[in-house]
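Lab manual, section 2.4: Encoding a predicted structure.

Procedure: take the sequence of the chain (305 residues), apply the prediction step described in section 2.3, and record the output as structure tokens. A sample record is shown.
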Amino acid sequence: MATLLAAVMLGALLLYALLAGADFGGGVWDLLARGPRAKAQRDAVSHALAPVWEANHVWLILMVVVLFTAFPPAFAAILTALHVPLTLMLVGIVLRGSAFVFRQYGGGGEGAEAAWGRVFAVASGVTPVFLGAALGAMTTGGAWHAPFPLAVGFFALALFAMLAAVYLTHECQDAELQSDFRLRALGAAAVSAVLALVTALLAPVPVVSWPAAGCSVALGAGLLLTLLLRRFAVARAFAIALVTLVVAGWGLHRYPVLLPPGLTVENAAAPPQTLRLLEPTLGLGALVLFPSLYWLMRVFKRRDR
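Recorded output:
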């Protein structure tokens, strides 16, 4: 039962990376928009984010709720040890969301719009770094500001930027904008590969198995090839598979440890009565959540709109 709930948390983290992670990556490209199509690039990012950015945080909320309900000792230890990066991450999430809304609807002219745009973009860039640093510290049980956790943070930022650029190549209808985001996706994929190697070299403990590393290389090669061939729908599938492998591989490789050295899925679990109540509650919630999110995507993400 505890293992199933740990799998729910890992699944929520994966969905947060695939959906909200791309939102953070979109902020990176908003910050780096350049050239004669800079405004069109920012407009494309805003159009992609506007319908879904709030809904995507449901996965972070789900992960936190399951953690403090099903594994309260781990929740207390993680929130105590990683209070600084997690607080900064939450501040970044709030600033990013507020700035995005104020830029879109706050008025105040071009100056205010530009200022809020910078807040949105910078907050989008720093938040994944703190998230990755917290996950890196959870992997080793050490300080979040050590070289390995910080490397994980910058790797997460590059991975999210890559994911956003790939999504945008598929979402944009304008051929020139597709080319812009295609070049950004290729660049972010190359940076992600370098940072993945740096992270692995800095890791004080094994963080991935050799089969998973081999699959990551194969998926990365497939992603680069499909981007070069302009097969954007297939490239999106490769990007999703690559991020899924990274997140799922991390979680499965460190199972059953929640926080080193001694907190595991079994010894940090809540009493069986609590776990038995939590499982049907999550099931009922899923009956509402998944159809709602499907309908949201169906309404706002159709290509014929």
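Check your result against the sample. The beta strands are 257-259, 263-264.
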